[in-house]
Amino acid sequence: MTAISSRMTRFADVNSAVLQFLTNSDYTRKAGEPGICDFAIGNPHEMPLPGLISALEYQLQPKTEEWYAYTMNESGAVQTVVQSLKDRYGLAIEPENVIMTTGGFSAISIAIHAVTDPGDEVIFNSPPWFFYEAMLQGAGCIPVRVKVRPDNFDLDLEAIRAAITPKTRAIIVNSPNNPTGKIYPPETLRALADILTEASARNGRIIYLFSDEAYRRILYDGVEYSSPIKYYVPTFMLYTYGKQTLAPGQRIGYIALPSAMPDVRSVALACLTAQLTVGFAQPNALLQHALADIEKTCLDLEHLQYKRDWMIRELRNIGYDVHLPEGTFYLLPRSPIPDDQQFIRLLAEQNVLCLPGELIEMPGYFRVSLTANDSMIERGLPGFKAAFEAARA
Amino acid sequence: MTAISSRMTRFADVNSAVLQFLTNSDYTRKAGEPGICDFAIGNPHEMPLPGLISALEYQLQPKTEEWYAYTMNESGAVQTVVQSLKDRYGLAIEPENVIMTTGGFSAISIAIHAVTDPGDEVIFNSPPWFFYEAMLQGAGCIPVRVKVRPDNFDLDLEAIRAAITPKTRAIIVNSPNNPTGKIYPPETLRALADILTEASARNGRIIYLFSDEAYRRILYDGVEYSSPIKYYVPTFMLYTYGKQTLAPGQRIGYIALPSAMPDVRSVALACLTAQLTVGFAQPNALLQHALADIEKTCLDLEHLQYKRDWMIRELRNIGYDVHLPEGTFYLLPRSPIPDDQQFIRLLAEQNVLCLPGELIEMPGYFRVSLTANDSMIERGLPGFKAAFEAARA
Fold first, then answer.
1. Could A44 and B68 be called an inter-chain contact, meaning their C-beta atoms sit closer than 8 Å?
2. Minimal CA–CA distance to A209: which of A227, A186, A182?
3. A 91-150 residues inside an 8 A Cβ radius of B
4. Would strands B253-256 and B235-240 be described as parallel, antiparallel, or unpaired?
5. What does the pLDDT look like over B126-165, one tens digit per residue?
């Protein structure tokens, strides 16, 4: 394939299972069909939140000549972020250290480009989000995989310590974690900070923490969220509004850097140049104008928790082994047979679409998105039962 | 600066003059002040086009549950592009070879990532758009600069031929050209195609043409536009709606690939993976829904031509040496003194903001954006006269 670049060939290799799932699979053949119960992807299956629509509607009519001009870090949007971080988490972030991005994808890409060079190693924890590894490879970095603890899905601190080398430049931490639903507790984050601080000193070069906090607002049981940024200064806080609004097609997010980060002005400027390099990864003007209202918009967490509890109760009744997630949209049941791809096919025969664990480095599991609507759950549960019985037969 | 990556340090070095202009200059200090006449950047100085607002307004209310779900190449938007290319230019592009992008910036970035690898050489013509060189460097490519012909700003075909090496992977062609306003004629494009075809055969590897057509709809005097894609098959047509709508804060554009391009399906898939790599560089859902109406929306070219002719007449009367552009928003007068940066300061003293030629590799010239409104032109012309006289004093 000399027609395309080796980097994109590698990307396709690393993500071949995901790309096939997204472009040519039971999922693509069946999703959207009447009667299909779609639990595969964290996509909406109810009408968009009225708060999102009214936020956009309210800002649509231009108020100035520059309303739709080149928009980078629009001061109103930045101020919304600063105030939100102060009110929600007691964090004091300077406006000049907030970089508005087109959602979480580009926040990750920009962080990578801003501080890593080709050949740098970046640690990520497995199970990971689909695209960490390929995005790191695309940027010329060496992805280093560390499995989380199998007993409780917490970070495996000793394995992280052992994975650090003189070439380690960053570690990606995703809490609440997709797909395990785990929130890493303060004591884990504190111990991780000690490990990174010590290793940075030994290396004579900062090891950054990229904190992917996409699901930070999707929490159950009134649990509190602790950001790694509270424990480790050289942290890129990466956020997207795509989860809380469940509108990933209207992309806005940000990077926030603590004032105490060494050379923070240079890092913020490197984020700006990285945005230009990857292709003007600034969110659209309308979304930035609407951010003060979007900030207040969040899907109905009570209803989400109801769906979580309902499904867990029923899945356990059927016989599934499934743990209780603390956050995110996802359940992660064990497949009743070792081959999760085959079990996903059994579910698809019942018109139930789920994500095979193989795609998220959790072989023997499968992922269920709670963004399915009540009717899909109602109709889907007998399918989960029939597939379970077929697998056990 | 070990806090940031070497690639971003290089980016900042290459674009230091541009970054300073955009972040800390007479331009940033004075732009937007009352009385200021802003000719510096191709940004709007009149209210947004009503057609753009109504296009967005009409599609804002969600029609389906998936209205704001993950959006890649939305079929309605792709169909709009296919139909537009057929109607306007008689081109037959397959829907599967259209890749929707967040404007021109990301179209360029995606093309680079899709088919080049680190170490590949990419030729660009000078004067270039600000960010070609830095984007190429950011992607690990080696930028190779070829000056256009000084007599008529046409491509210098012999210089391009001489610049091609076995490592050449692509050439960027920008017609109509920012900042010269030149449209490269069919005979130039045909001869360029011959050069590239011959060199590709010699190299045993395709040399792609990245055709940056951002200003394709901004034409004067009823002139016809010829795309390089008509003459050379391995061409990435790169388009953005940001110029025709003069709304660069609402970003939508595309890459179109000809069906006859070798391995075209692989190339289109490489574009998709490149979009994921750089950070989900797909345009927002609302813009894709609205594209059929946005496609019909264009700034008032008659009025733009009126402003061009008015300013050229007056600038020539004052004594400026300025040629007639065939397209784009820009005039490119010679600075009356060799030091264009100093002349820009003289203009700024008159509350007239322009872009120094040094920033666009045209030392001794300066750039005037015709997106200034009539009142700015009216008020600015005496300033152009006073600065001219001060420079000659």
1. yes
2. A227
3. 101-103, 105-110, 113-118, 131, 134-135, 138-140
4. antiparallel
5. 999 989 999 999 999 999 999 999 999 999 999 999 999 9
Distance CA B172, CA A173 (A): 39
Instruction: Identify the pLDDT of residue A343.
Output: 97
For tokens 């059929």, what's the residue?
B292
- pLDDT of residue A204 exceeding 80, the answer is yes
Residue pair B37/B382 in contact (Cβ under 8 Å)? The answer is no
pLDDT at B140: 92
What average pLDDT does the structure give for chain B? 96
Q: Enter the ipTM.
A: 0.96
Whether chain B has a CB inside 8 Å of the CB on A250: the answer is yes
Q: Report all structural domains of chain A as residue ranges with CATH numbers, in order of start.
A: 6-49+300-392 (3.90.1150.10), 63-295 (3.40.640.10)
In the DSSP assignment, the letter for residue A359 is: G
Chain A residue with CA closest to B41: the answer is: A70
Q: Which of B1, B6, B7 to mutate to test the interface with A (most CBs of A within 10 A)?
A: B7
Distance CA A68, CA B265 (A): 35
Most confident of A14-18, A32-36, A199-203: A199-203
> By the 8 A CB rule, do A69 and B45 touch?
no
Statement: residue A1 has pLDDT above 80: no
pTM attached to this predicted model? 0.96
Which residue carries 């537009």 as its tokens? B84
List all residues of chain B from 287 to 326 with a beta carbon under 8 Å from chain A. 287
